[in-house]
Design the sequence.
């Protein structure tokens, strides 16, 4: 009996989250390619174990939109060897290559043309890769891949928010000499915490013409 069937899905989910966090941590500290590769493979293993345990063929619901379901299923089967949905899903791995595109992309699974956050999946049998949107994946009966992609999407959103905060800070500093004189330090604060606080926060909002925050304490 595979180990994944004797361990509760909750534990397998926790293991997957830990594997994802560990791989992320190694990426951040720029670990050696060997270590990164080993950590990536560990995430694949954890994804597969969780998918197997959480896989319930009876729960095979079809998404509400029939046309969408046909497009998505068709898109997957064309690039798979197995020609039955549940079998085909098992051939795919999420490679953890992902990103945010400044221009919308097309989902190669369902043809949706509004993809902002993209994720790459690879078929282990046919070696085909597909770039898909994060909405599409919510309809997969592969909890491991869904969990991993949702995890990565959150990280990408965090990075994007930080970029926006930095841009706002730069813009505000052009108008406010107080901010300009502290720019390197404030940039570092955004890098570390994702935003600036207190007087700096008030000043950025004021410089950009945004209303002050309700619960913001007066800085005077
Ligand atoms: Zn799609």
Sequence:
């Amino acid at each position: 009996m595979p180990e994944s069937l004797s361990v509760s899905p909750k534990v397998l989910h926790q293991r997957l989250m830990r594997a994802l966090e560990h791989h992320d941590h190694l990426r951040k500290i720029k670990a050696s390619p060997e270590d990164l590769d080993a950590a990536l493979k560990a995430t694949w293993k954890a994804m597969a174990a969780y998918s197997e345990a959480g896989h319930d063929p009876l729960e095979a619901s079809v998404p509400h939109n029939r046309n969408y379901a046909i497009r998505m299923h068709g898109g997957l089967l064309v690039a798979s060897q197995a020609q039955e949905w549940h079998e085909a899903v098992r051939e795919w791995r999420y490679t953890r290559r992902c990103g945010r595109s400044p221009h919308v992309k097309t989902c190669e699974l369902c043809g949706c043309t509004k993809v902002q956050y993209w994720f790459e999946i690879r078929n282990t049998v046919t070696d085909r890769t597909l770039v898909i949107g994060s909405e599409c994946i919510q309809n997969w009966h592969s909890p491991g891949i869904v969990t991993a992609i949702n995890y990565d999407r959150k990280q990408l959103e965090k990075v994007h928010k930080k970029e926006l905060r930095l841009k706002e800070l730069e813009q505000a500093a052009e108008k406010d000499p107080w901010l300009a004189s502290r720019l390197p330090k404030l940039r570092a604060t955004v890098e570390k915490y994702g935003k600036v606080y207190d007087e700096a926060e008030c000043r950025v909002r004021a410089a950009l013409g945004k209303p002050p925050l309700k619960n913001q304490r007066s800085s005077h």
